[in-house]
TrEMBL record, chain A:
It is a multi-pass membrane protein. Its main location: membrane. It comes from freshwater metagenome. It is found in: Membrane. The chain crosses the membrane at residues 6-22, 29-48, 60-83. This is Unannotated protein. GO terms for molecular function: oxidoreductase activity, acting on NAD(P)H. Pfam families: Oxidored_q2 (PF00420).
TrEMBL record, chain B:
The keyword Transmembrane applies. The chain crosses the membrane at residues 23-42, 54-72, 92-110, 141-161, 167-188, 200-223, 243-263, 284-302, 314-333, 340-361, 367-388, 409-429, 449-474, 486-508. Residues 164-460 form the NADH:quinone oxidoreductase/Mrp antiporter transmembrane domain. This is Unannotated protein. It is a multi-pass membrane protein. HAMAP family: NDH1_NuoN_1. It is found in: Membrane. GO terms for cellular component: membrane. The keyword Ribonucleoprotein does not apply. GO terms for biological process: ATP synthesis coupled electron transport. GO terms for molecular function: NADH dehydrogenase (ubiquinone) activity.
């Protein structure tokens, strides 16, 4: 199969992730959408690695997985703490900081 | 099938070569990241009472060692780690600045003389705000010493950021720098709900923007077949066509970096995070992230995308003009000191972008000088904000509480006035030299209209900086006027260093300007 189809799929996933971040209000779902964007980039890297005929893109994908795992740790820590002090995981509700 | 076969063939054809890392060139970064690992071990194995002295010794010794290692590398111009890192003149100057700013930031974070219940950080970041747990932890005098491990990792990432010479290293450096800062932003001792909210906003928007950076990096890799900046530059100059894809890629990558800088329209997190984060962290972050991120942006634009200059200049032109105007105009309406400084930092980022757009050695030197001058002034500003306290010993950040401070505490108010004049760009301060060098570089690059916008924005900005000076010196102190707490030696050193550099760079800028000009341009 033509690898450029995977690039189109990755662009679609990236778009879905972006829409998710912008429209969903639950912090966990927003966070999942960000992860979807990172994985869309991974798919693009791997597809391009095959199209370019070198391994750089696959190496990048491994590093991104590690970084995404670290991001999950930090992000969930912050979201859980917010949930415990507010009893809600909505990202609209904390609104003490404005203007 | 053919593509897979060709991948396998190329892999088999190249004999395995041991990668060379060049530890001498990596020494400053390795010292700081190694100290970060040791700091985690300290948390695991030392008794509670021994942690603070051990951590502080580790932090200052490792940062000074890293500074010495950077100075030792002076004059090097080489790539390390198989081309992943470029240790060159501008990179080393930015690394050195990050280390010095980190030392001053660490001094602010180590302060324990200002808040009677301890330092600026929550006794236990995991305890619920306002709960019995929290009260008990505070009463028993618990302290969170894990901040030092976060701090060292963040500094390591910041040192990596301006010398990263490929897209992967730049992404990893971006995350190593940002992830600890998200956590540090949420650990304030007072107004903890605000602080946690700042951490959430910083994290969500930061992760969102790094995803943009990464997808842009994937597209650039797809176009050029390499992640290394010099090879991307070669591919961009040799391949024509498909420019639409390249423009999207450049837009996404640059947007990821502009977010860290706080340029409009990626600036929404700046005021919230600056206001909510513990003041010492805000000071450190505001100063050091700007240095690191501008270093990375300059390297990406000048080395990898240098050939695409005519495509990214118009985009950055609009962003720089918007950043300066929006930052300056919104700062006019603020009533909270930390929030006002946050909008001022947005405007300052716009001024530095003017130097970036010049895309010449003079523009590079001007932008580096400006960002160095700005970072020292910012550390001084936040040192004073952390000292000005209200009746409950919380920080008095509302502007009305600063009225008449010049009468009650003339010395500190005068220092703050010097910082405000420097940010406004009044002659005899570092800010003037910075603005002057950036604007002259932009004019000689033919960007006269942008400089006119910049001058108008400077005038608007000067108004709100002067308003603070007038408020402190020309209004009567009231009941609500805050008092200035006398800090311990830590904050005093940081404040003295910030003020000295701000004034010295205004009167004798030549040594630093020569140093930056002699450092030359980025290695290609």
């Amino acid at each position: 199969m033509n690898p450029s189809n995977y690039v189109i799929l990755s662009a679609l996933l990236f778009g879905i992730g972006t829409l998710g971040v912008l429209t969903r209000r639950n912090a966990i779902v927003v966070f999942m959408s960000v992860e979807l964007m990172l994985n869309a980039a991974n798919l693009a890297f791997v597809a391009f690695a095959r199209m370019n005929g070198n391994l750089d893109g696959q190496v990048v994908a491994f590093f991104v997985m590690v970084v995404a795992a670290a991001e999950v740790v930090v992000g969930l820590a912050i979201i859980v703490q917010i949930f415990r002090s507010r009893r809600s995981a909505s990202i609209d509700e904390p609104n003490l900081l404005k203007y | 099938m053919n593509a897979v076969a060709s991948v396998v063939r190329t892999v088999e054809a190249t004999p395995w070569v041991m990668p060379t890392l060049d530890y001498t060139l990596l020494a400053p970064i390795l010292i700081v990241l190694g100290a970060g690992v040791v700091s985690v071990l300290f948390e695991a194995f030392l008794p509670r009472s021994a942690r603070r002295p051990a951590q502080l010794t580790l932090v200052f010794v490792s940062l000074v060692a890293a500074l010495i290692a950077v100075i030792n590398l002076q004059g090097s111009r080489a790539t390390a780690g198989q081309g992943a890192l470029a240790i060159d003149g501008p990179g080393l100057i930015l690394q050195g600045t990050v280390v010095v700013i980190a030392i001053l930031g660490a001094l602010l974070m180590a302060e324990r003389g200002l808040d009677p219940s301890g330092d600026a950080f929550a006794a236990r970041a995991s305890s619920l705000p306002g709960s019995e747990d929290e009260r008990q932890f505070t009463a028993r005098g618990y302290f969170q010493t894990e901040i030092w491990a976060f701090f060292l990792f963040a500094v390591g990432g910041m040192m990596l950021f301006p010398v990263a010479n490929d897209l992967l290293m730049m992404f990893v450096a971006l995350e190593v720098m940002s992830l600890p800062l998200y956590l540090l932003a949420g650990m304030a001792r007072r107004r903890r709900l605000l602080s946690q909210e700042a951490a959430l906003k910083y994290f969500v928007l930061g992760a969102f923007s790094s995803a943009f950076f990464l997808y842009g990096a994937a597209l650039l890799y797809g176009f050029s077949g390499s992640i290394s900046f010099p090879e991307i530059a070669t591919a961009l100059s040799s391949k024509t066509g498909e420019t639409g894809l390249v423009l999207v890629a450049i837009g996404l990558v640059v947007a990821g970096l502009l977010f860290k800088i706080g340029a409009v329209p990626f600036h929404q997190w700046v005021p919230d995070v600056y206001q909510g984060a513990p003041t010492p962290v805000t000071g450190f972050m505001a100063a050091a992230v700007k240095v690191a991120a501008f270093g990375a942006l300059l390297r990406l634009l000048y080395v990898a995308l240098g050939g695409m200059r005519w495509d990214w200049t118009p985009m950055l032109w609009v962003i720089a003009a918007l950043t300066m105007l929006v930052g300056a105009i919104l700062a006019l309406t603020q009533t909270d000191m930390k929030r006002m400084i946050a909008y001022s930092s947005i405007a300052q980022a716009g001024f530095i972008l003017v130097g970036v757009i010049a895309a010449s050695p003079a523009g590079l030197a001007g932008a580096i000088f400006y960002v160095i001058a700005y970072s020292f002034t910012t550390i001084g500003v936040f040192a004073i904000i952390s000292m000005v306290r209200d009746n409950n010993n919380g920080e008095a950040t509302h502007l009305s509480k600063w009225a008449g401070l010049g009468r009650t505490s003339p010395f500190i108010a005068s220092l703050f006035a010097i910082f405000m004049l420097a940010l406004a760009g009044i002659p005899l301060t570092s800010g003037f030299i910075g603005k002057f060098s950036v604007f002259t570089a932009a004019i000689s690059a033919g960007e006269t209209w942008l400089v006119i916008v910049a001058v108008v924005a400077s005038l608007i900005a000067a108004f709100f900086y002067m308003r603070v000076v007038v408020l402190m010196f020309f209004s009567e102190p009231t009941e609500a006027t805050a008092t200035v707490e006398i800090p311990s030696v830590f904050t005093t050193i940081a404040l003295a260093a910030g003020a000295t550099v701000t004034v010295l760079l205004g009167i004798f800028p030549q040594p630093l300007l020569d140093l930056i000009l002699n450092a030359g341009v980025f290695i290609r």
